[in-house]
């Protein structure tokens, strides 16, 4: 799968199309199989007890997979999630950003399937695993 948008292009796309969340999320690297993205964890992402909330972890996985697909097909803003499954495996480490290591499994004309492992920055064990299917709109 050829890369058509690198990390800088994806971050500019997020800044332009999703300014409401772009400051929290960054694509750090696009590679041959997927990409790596970061959530800058702040107070808004925490739940009682000081751990990162499940919706924040899910949002990082969704954004990472979305960007991994766009890295291959270009800036198609209307690609949408059609199926998602997430396993929360352990508590994220306090005071650390979250990192999504995303891998594209299939990229077809109308559907894409990918998975993301979510880690606390610097951690060796994943805190969550997510698989998603995206619908890709037809080319105009």
Automatic annotation (TrEMBL):
Source organism superkingdom: Bacteria
Recorded GO MF terms: acyl-CoA hydrolase activity
Pfam annotation, one family: 4HBT
Keywords, in A-Z order: Hydrolase
Protein's recorded name: PaaI family thioesterase
Domain Thioesterase: 49-125
UniProt cross-references to InterPro entries, sorted A to Z: HotDog_dom_sf, PAAI_dom, Thioestr_dom
Gene3D superfamilies to which the protein is assigned, alphabetical: Hotdog Thioesterase
